[in-house]
Amino acid sequence: MTALTPAQAEFLRSIDTPTVCNLIEMVAPERRGFGYTVKHLHCPFPNLPPMVGFAKTVTIRSKDSFGLGDGGYMQKRLDYLDYIAQAPNPSIVLIEDLDGEHIGYGAFWGEVQTNVHKALGCLGTITNGSVRDIPQVAEGFQMLAGSISPSHAYVHVEEYGVPVNIHGMAAESGDLIHADQHGAVIVPLDLIDRMKPALDVILAKEAKIIATAKAPGASVESIKAAMK
Description:
By secondary structure, the chain is an alpha/beta fold. It is 33% helix and 25% strand. It has helices at residues 6-13, 17-27, 69-85, 111-119, 192-214, 220-227; strands spanning 51-61, 91-97, 107-109, 122-131, 142-148, 156-160, 164-166, 169-171, 176-180, 183-186. Strands 1, 2, 3, 4, 5, 6, 9 and 10 form an 8-stranded mixed sheet that branches. A two-stranded antiparallel ribbon has the order 7-8. Helix 2 (17-27) packs across helix 5 (192-214) and helix 5 runs antiparallel to helix 6 (220-227). The longest helix is centred in the last third of the chain and has 23 residues, at 192-214. It starts with 5 loop residues before the first helix and ends with a helix.
């Protein structure tokens, strides 16, 4: 895996997720139709800046009780925390809820888990499952979730470090993720340096069209001319 440089990280944090999607499809047209979330995710903190981090992938269930026994499951949770703490960091935890029609039955994320994961280098989470404790969430910890639920029910980790699919975004452990209130996208590391000059091109094109549309006497003819 190619390392993310500080300059690349700063560049990605300076733009929103729709812009990242635009840039990826501009420099790699084959990526236009996949690699991002395609359904609405609740974002309790829309004013937080974009997060850029490496995926830590997890699957959970919460509808039914788990069968490892208290001691066995505690060891699994401790091993899971080792996975979250290991490089690469900073991280974004991608949790796929596997409960089918009962997805979101119980929330993994709340006051305790957000504080624990923040301490281990995690910027936030993206999950098709549910979250809770919104006012008590660790400061600055972003959450994009399929739903909001009051209980954790029988929520438990099934596997970690495995492929997941969050609302159409198929991801693997270690993928670089960009996310904000709009959703999330996987950013191929080898495209970032090509995305930077493409940003100037996109901004110039958009600025010309918007300025034309806002100009006094704007017409379909003037807008069509600007678009060409």
